[in-house]
Amino acid sequence: MDTIRTSRTTIPALGFGTWQLEGQVAYDGVRTALDVGYRHIDTAQIYRNEEEVGRAIADSDLDRDAVFVTTKIWRDAATPKDVERTAQESLERLGLDHVDLLLIHWPADEIAPLEATVEALDRLRERELTRAIGVSNYPAARFARALEVAPVATNQVEHHPYLAVDAISEVAAANDAFVTAYSPIAQGKVLDDATIAGIAEAHGVSPVQVTVRWHLQRGVSAIPRSSKPERIAANGDVFGFELSDDEVAAITELGRGERLIDPPFMSDWDAA
Ligand SMILES: NC(=O)c1ccc[n+]([C@@H]2O[C@H](COP(=O)([O-])OP(=O)(O)OC[C@H]3O[C@@H](n4cnc5c(N)ncnc54)[C@H](OP(=O)(O)O)[C@@H]3O)[C@@H](O)[C@H]2O)c1
User: pTM to 2 decimals?
Assistant: First the structure.
């Protein structure tokens, strides 16, 4: 449960998200996350914090191999040439010779055919600039197409108690891949949920901890973000209790198709 193992990667299921953390806040957040035990850090070119993330990892006492680093190529750079160029730039900013997982951040069919983008990612994997590759925000049908092209390890998508991703999970399960949940605590909305609060109270933990644990027990990787050291620590402290099957099911039943991130260039989300 704390580690997801497939033929394509071995990844700590709990990661630290860094969207909207910039400058010193990003650096301090990653340092704190590593100090309190996170071993998986999620960044992206568009977050403009790869430099701080890389420095925080370098300044920690951890070996490079002890930290799983994911970055994402922005959709504007979906052509094979730009995938390669911007991946190199990311590595330079991160100060690393490889990342553990390299994702294409959003589908970008009007910029390059999906197959060409995924093939370009896979060439970087073959050159060991990344250990594994993946996609992000790919609806199930596109995810399946990507999997026909290359050994895609994961699809990082919005997923929380209010947004199920069953079609994507089915494609992942059938292809030795897994789902990574972004906005895993619905950007804080789970704090106001009576069902989750009741389960949290029964275990003497917080609603955020219950929600992170719910993801992990279902074989999903979760990458919660916080800018606050005490929350970073608490959000990752999820290995000392266990949800019952009924509790997991009760949270799963909260799904109501509520999508928090829906940019105008996306039009073919799966029904949820
Ligand atoms: N692939 C993509 O397109 C994509 C899109 C979105 C996100 N992501 C990734 O997923 C990560 C997580 O998603 P997210 O940042 O959208 O949302 P999230 O992790 O679901 O929620 C973050 C929000 O919750 C608050 N929060 C965190 N812990 C809390 C706690 N214990 N109590 C109260 N509030 C708390 C944070 O505020 P404070 O900072 O004030 O604690 C922040 O506003 C991102 O950082 C990024 O790495 C990827």
Answer: 0.99
